[in-house]
From TrEMBL:
InterPro entries: ZSWIM3_N (IPR048325). Residues 16-110 form the ZSWIM3 N-terminal domain. This is ZSWIM3 N-terminal domain-containing protein. It holds the Pfam family ZSWIM3_N.
Amino acid sequence: MCDVTEEFHHLMKFPYNSFAQFQLDLSKFQHTTATSYTIRSSLSAANYRRATGKSLPDPFPYRWLQYRCVHSQTRCKAVRNADYGCESKFTVTVRKKKLCLVRANFKHSHSFQQGKPWLYSSNRRLNSEQQDLIYSVMDSFHDSHQLRRFIEESFDRRLNRFDLRRLREANKKMQQSNLHPCKSMLEKSKLALPDKSSLITTSAEHIMDDGGDEYTSVTNDSAQLKMETKLKYAQTLAKDLVSVLVGLEETDFWKQLNSFQHMIDVLAVDPEVHIECRSEKNLNH
């Protein structure tokens, strides 16, 4: 049993005058404790107005919300959503034009991913302003490692390669639709791009794993050789995997495809995790 009641009341400052500030503090709390809560039920301002004829103050898009730990029920087999039957939850509601905490239980029935809040996608998510800023400077970086490092140092968010891919795809769509944020956003912010010279690799380069904190210095030739070797084995495995998947019945195909997608998401965040094959014993016979 893990209790984060003290941490919650230390970081959360009820009552709140705006929902935005509540979200910022909740994000900080989840990062600090390596927990993840999701909205399981709510009453929106629109539905509240439709039912009662009353309106909420502009800063509040909900009349009330209930948050529950993501480990409260079965969602998928990935580590980040493992079913522990956790009863941790809390409810907030708007009273007297302020957002108040009305009931809560912060006792979790499971241990936490200490030091790994990034295992949960909600703890890696950028807000709209941060995303717009990244879109405006994305092309200034030499590679993905530099961009990820900049995001972590600027916003305290450790993105994985899938997060970056989604950002690049969204950025491309915005450019095509002429909705790209202006470059002046960087000037308005207090952030600064790294020196251009630091983005140029010479005899050595720094490579960071998705879940690692340390940088390993290797020569360009050695790094290139290792990358080619990994690429060769990965392509062979991918080819075998495709041939097996396409031969499955439709029901089994989608089931297994979903399992592999969750496995990839977990490895992207924690490359040291051991993926166990339940049929290994059968393969030995």
